[in-house]
Amino acid sequence: MGGTIAGLGSSPADHTHYVAGQLGVAQLVAAVPALAEWTQPLEVEQLAQLDSKDMDTRTWAHLLQRVAALLDDETVRGIVITHGTDTLEETAYLLHAVLAPAKPVVITCAMRPASALAPDGPQNLLDAVTLASQPGVQGVLAVCAGVVHGPQEVQKVHPYRLDAFVSGDEGPLAYVEAGRVRQLRAWPGGHRPRRDLLPALARPWPRVAIVLSHADAQAWMVASLLAAGVQGLVVAGTGNATVHRAMEATLEEARARGVRLLRTSRCALGQVVEPSADSMADLSTLSPVKARIALALDLMADAD
Ligand code: SIN
User: Fold this and answer.
1) Domain regions of the chain by residue span
2) How far is the CA of 42 from the centre of ligand 1 (A)?
3) Residue 198 contacts residue 97 (beta carbons within 8 Å)
4) CB of 95 closer than 8 Å to CB of 101
5) pLDDT digit string, tens, across residues 282-303
6) Which has fewest Cβ within 10 Å: 3, 89, 191, 255?
7) What is the CATH number of domain 4-183?
8) pLDDT band at 281 (very low <50, low <70, confident <90, very high)
């Protein structure tokens, strides 16, 4: 899909001004000697080549269709996706929510471009292939810096460190250490796939935005989204998903006009504890960016 793992900079010291998505996936695989000798056949496919900050629903739809087809191919044992770190958690959640795969779909990435003095991409890619080849592994997984994260929990929390991802209070699912997988928790899965939404996912998505509650938050923030025709609003609330009182009336108005509201917390760790009894909006335990995808999927299901 592109990303820093396929990025090139002007010199080995360039860690920040490089261009993401320059090398093809075949070149990434060829750069890892252990993959040249991999005992199972590896096939590579270039689906996209982008800086993941620019991810869009058309690219997501293409990825979903292709991964769905590969999952249905009984000769495919597992899938590895190279991806930028910036929106990796959103892609992971979307694949998990829609496909609920019984095979491993492992997303990996890098925090240093391929041209860096010590790029982290080759080891991450090897770890991802190791994980995807391991019998019994299933579901959408993210692997970075030897840590395996689940699609519901994974979050990028650091803009520079090699281990830029965490799994919050839940903790990682596993580690990949010297070519071995040490599992800590059950692999994700067990929910109903939503493949019936694939046609809707390929069309323009419902307009769902995130509005952040913060000190000095104001009604115009919600009003301007209403004027723009928003169909769903994720309210990233303070603490226990609480909302600034200055926004409450306009949010009520949005709800009365048929806008679906979903409340979540802007806190990076933990989950909402004893939410207030008000019925302004359903509550989500997902991060705001994942709750936005969940709400969009619900709106698509309602429209079908
Ligand atoms: C991207 O997300 O495509 C660029 C940043 C990265 O991969 O670390």
Assistant:
1) 4-183, 205-303
2) 24
3) no
4) yes
5) 889 999 999 999 999 999 999 9
6) 191
7) 3.40.50.1170
8) confident
CB distance 208 to ligand 1 below 6 Å: no
Active site residue 4: yes
Fold of 205-303: Rossmann fold (3.40.50)
Task: Quick: pLDDT tens for 162-205.
Answer: 999 999 999 999 999 999 999 999 999 888 999 999 999 999 99
Written as six digits, the tokens of 256 are 């009365």
What spacing in Å lies between the alpha carbon of 250 and ligand 1's midpoint?
36
Q: Which of 4, 82, 91, 130 is catalytic?
A: 4
